[in-house]
Amino acid sequence: MNERAIERHSVNCYKCDTLFDERNSERTTPDGGDICPDCAVQGINIAVTAQEFHTIIAALRFYQESGMGDPGNRSDDIHALACNGDDVVSLDAVGIDNLCERINTGGSLQ
Ligand SMILES: [Zn+2]
Asked: Of 11, 35, 61, 104, which is the most exposed, with the fewest CB atoms less than 10 Å away?
């Protein structure tokens, strides 16, 4: 890869501030931040029943409908879960929407 290509696509990881090629970004945070492959949580694959699948979607939609895309509308315990302590930026309403869409369509991380 030539340096020019790297420069054009260089972004800083929102978490560790390391400069990396955005084309290797594992995902984009709701506010548009990129996360490097080293900081990204790897995908989790689990098999669920139809009942479990729809409960996950319902729970996410309940969370969203309750306004919990906004941290101010969460209890401390739910906020801690959404941020894994202070480890990640929690999803906002748009991020939750995108996640529901991906779960429904089997889409991959962007
Ligand atoms: Zn990083």
From this structure: 104
Q: Give the tens place of pLDDT for each residue, 64-75.
A: 999 999 999 999
Q: Rounded CA gap, 90 and 83, in Å? A: 5
Please tell me the distance between residue 24's alpha carbon and the centre of ligand 1 in angstroms.
11
Contact 86, 94 (CB under 8 A): no
Query: Ligand 1 mean position to 105 CA, how many Å?
Result: 28
- Give all strands (DSSP E) within the chain, no chain letters: 10-12, 19-21, 27-28, 34-35
Give the pTM.
0.61
